[in-house]
Amino acid sequence: MNRKPKILLTNDDGIRAPGIRYLAKALEEVADLTIMAPVDEKSASGLSITIKHPLSVQEVDWDDQKRVWCVTGTPADCVKLALSRYMSDPPDLVVSGINPGSNAGRNLLYSGTVGGAIEGIMHNIPGIAFSVEDYIKPKFDHTLTYIQKIVSHVIENPLPVGTLLNVNFPNSNGGDIQGIKFTRQGAGMWIENPDQRIHPTEGHSYYWIGQKEIKESEPEDTDTWWIQKGYITAVPVHVAELTDHRMLKERKNSFEKLF
Predict the structure, then answer these.
(1) What class, spelled out in words, does domain 6-188+219-256 have in CATH?
(2) 216-250: string of b/e by CB count within 10 Å (b at 16+)?
């Protein structure tokens, strides 16, 4: 590819989040960037879209970047609007992040960061979602070189149709990263841990849903296992075909005989 690849950036932490700034910094020299992200944080929004009220889009003054907007919606809303109204040609890649907090294991199903990449897949545009394990004090500096190399590799070696790459960085100050593992999704996830409160004036219960990590015994070839060993993990996630073909084959006749 002689020209710079066109890349659409989004996230679920909002246009003011530091992660997306680092993502743009990592890619601004090697790509033609368009940035469209939520106005406010939309963590754990998955692939949700806004249908009950209109969306507002505002141009953002962002250093030397000329194509930057924020949207009063979700990451999926941002990608939909960017592709249909704000980009004259489809991008070569949708890149989402950098998310503070791991999206390894089954957490990717809740992730708005991953949701932004999935929305690109729905339009036949490959995607990469980037996250760092540390949620409280995430370190983004050490991700820059790796992000540029990973994105360049995917541009030069396109992902299969319907597949995104879910990349997670371990807790690290940069010198402790052991390498990168191209691996499979683990079973680990955050589960609900509701904290019940009582409304001070009305007396009824309300809840902070909270979250607690399930400590699964993970096989050694999963992202949740490798990230604990100090490795960057990259998982190819296929979302274009969701059918359970084995069940379809095994039960098709018996199910259709119900009526």
Answers:
(1) alpha beta
(2) eebeeebbbbbbbeebbbbbebebeeeeeeeeeee
Identify the residue whose tokens are 């592709």.
83
Q: What's residue 205's pLDDT?
A: 81
Alpha-carbon torsion (88, 45, 131, 244), positive or negative: negative
- Other beta carbons less than 10 A from residue 125's beta carbon: 19
Whole-model pTM: value is 0.90
Note the pLDDT tens digit of each residue in 156-191.
999 999 999 999 999 875 568 899 999 999 877 666
The domain segmentation of the chain, as residue ranges, is 6-188+219-256
From 59, 54, 53, select the one nearest 36 (Cα to Cα). 59
Return d(Cα 179, Cα 241) in angstroms, integer: 31
Determine the Cα–Cα distance for residues 164 and 19; give it in Å rounded to an integer. Answer: 19
Residues near 57 by Cβ (< 8 Å), separated by ≥ 6?
A: 36, 69, 70, 71, 72, 81, 86
- 37 burial level (CB within 10 Å; 0-12, 13-18, 19+): buried
Instruction: State both tokens at 232.
Output: 């960057």
CA nearest to 223, candidates 128, 138, 111, 106: 106
Contact 116, 129 (CB under 8 A): yes
Q: H or E stretch including 165? A: strand 163-169
Is residue 162 within 8 Å of 118, Cβ to Cβ?
Answer: no
Q: What is the DSSP string of 214-257?
A: ------TTBHHHHHHTTEEEEEEEE-S----HHHHHHHHHHHHT
